[in-house]
Design goal:
Layout lengths: L1 H5 L3 E6 L6 H13 L5 E6 L4 H14 L6 E3 L19 H9 L7 E4 L21 E4 L5 H5 L3 H13 L15 H8 L7 H12 L5 H11 L8 H9 L4
Parallel strand pairs: 1-2, 1-3
Antiparallel strand pairs: 4-5
Helix pairs in contact: 2-10, 3-4, 7-8
Length: about 240
């Protein structure tokens, strides 16, 4: 969505463990299918090696003006488990990067996908497969941050993120999708929740492309012969390989 709004590609920082999760598989599929035309890319880093993150950030900053793109960073570093939880930390390294390379920061906040009571596990999808709102704030110029005392810079960005959308007790989960949930539940005996969600999403997607529609028909006919590399990647994602 960010790539569509800005008209430039977006990269997202993710821990290297995600290389082998469904998110990593989707990223690989996107790059395999679209190549240089891909609007999204994941940058994987080693959490046990702080220098690895610095290398990624400095490479981004040094090349962003020649090759414009956005960088999505989940500032808390991990997913919340309860609605209304504020962002508690913003790394000063990110602020330093923005100032050094004159990169504007755009605060973003997700809302509506978490339960009122803390979940016992981190959710892969919005509660009850309902919706999630994305609040995009006003651009913060690097010069604005540079003018602040050093200790106030991260605090200011954190405050602007937390000020987006409903906060605290005012944040409530969005309506759940019972029909979609039933579609997912019906598949759980044969595949994982993630695989069931992706398959159900494709089956209900309006204006599904002809190529994907043909692939779904082949899956339903249990005919997985003569598939392209990318089609095989899709069937693996959906649990039909």
């Amino acid at each position: 969505m960010i790539a569509a709004l800005t008209g430039i590609p977006a990269e997202a920082i993710a821990k290297q463990e995600h290389r082998n999760t469904w998110l990593g598989q989707v990223s690989n599929l996107t790059e395999s299918e679209l190549g240089q035309q891909s609007t999204t890319r994941m940058l994987f880093f080693d959490r046990d090696d702080q220098a690895d993150m610095l290398r990624i950030l400095n490479n981004f900053g040094a090349t962003v003006h020649a090759h414009p793109r956005s960088l999505l960073v989940h500032v808390d570093g991990t997913r919340a488990t309860q609605a209304g939880q504020p962002v508690e930390k913003v790394s000063s390294v990110l602020i330093d990067l923005a100032i050094k390379y004159t990169i504007p920061i755009i605060p973003v906040r997700f809302s509506g996908g978490l339960p009122v009571e803390a979940s016992s596990k981190r959710l892969e999808f919005p509660l009850g497969f309902g919706g999630q709102d994305y609040f995009v704030g006003a651009q913060i110029d690097a010069s604005e941050l540079a003018a602040l005392p050093y200790v106030e810079r991260a605090k200011s960005v954190r405050s602007l993120i937390n000020g987006l959308g409903p906060t605290g007790n005012t944040e409530m989960p969005l309506p759940q999708d019972d029909e979609f949930a039933q579609s997912v539940k019906a598949q759980l005996a044969h595949r994982s929740e993630t695989q069931a969600v992706l398959y159900s999403a494709l089956k209900t997607l309006p204006d599904l492309g002809a190529r994907m529609q043909r692939l779904l028909e082949k899956i339903e006919a249990q005919d997985l012969t003569n598939l392209s590399t990318e089609e095989k990647m899709v069937t693996t994602l959906l649990g039909y390989s």
